[in-house]
Amino acid sequence: MEGLDVADVDLKTRRAMIRHGKGQKQRVVPFSENTADAISQYLDKYRGTGPGRLVLSIDRGRGRKRLNKYHLGTMFQRLGDRAGVHANPHRFRHTFATKAIEAGAREIDVQYLLGYSTAAMTRRYAATCDASKAANRHSSFSPVTALISDY
Questions:
Q1: CB under 8 Å to 105, separation ≥6 — which residues?
Q2: What is the pLDDT along the chain (151 residues), one digit of tens a residue?
Q3: CA-to-CA distance for 50 and 105, rounded, in angstroms?
Q4: In order of start, what are the domains of the chain with their CATH numbers?
Q5: What is d(CA 122, CA 118) in angstroms, rounded to the nearest whole number?
Q6: What's the pTM?
Q7: According to DSSP H, which parts of 2-68 are helical?
């Protein structure tokens, strides 16, 4: 988000060109209709459609400037505090990966969307999902549960 220019986002096709992603790799990523609507509202209400960075920050009365990773960190921390959760950009990547895999996304798709050059990290997310599923299913085959139910 910090490196996106207005020209990098196509609201009609709902695609964004990530030019400086993880490992400085470029990729195109899709986004939802809800996201397109939110971006459109942001542009209409705050930003305008002129050239430059998509998301700008207010620089304490000195005008608008490019959003950077420090702004993002502060924004995530404030929103997370308000919501009572720990939030940061990496947590969003992790949540996206695990939720996508839980919903049936192929690991290769998640790897591409997150910009990983190898499947190793994506496999770690999949392993987390598998461990969570096993823990949730545990009560159905737990020996202790079977013993207790026999009484």
A1: none
A2: 567 899 999 999 999 998 876 666 788 888 999 999 999 999 999 888 899 888 876 666 666 666 777 778 888 889 899 999 888 878 888 888 888 888 888 888 888 888 887 888 788 777 777 677 767 666 677 777 667 766 6
A3: 36
A4: 1-85 (1.10.443.10), 88-151 (no CATH)
A5: 8
A6: 0.65
A7: 33-42
Structure tokens at 40: 């459109």
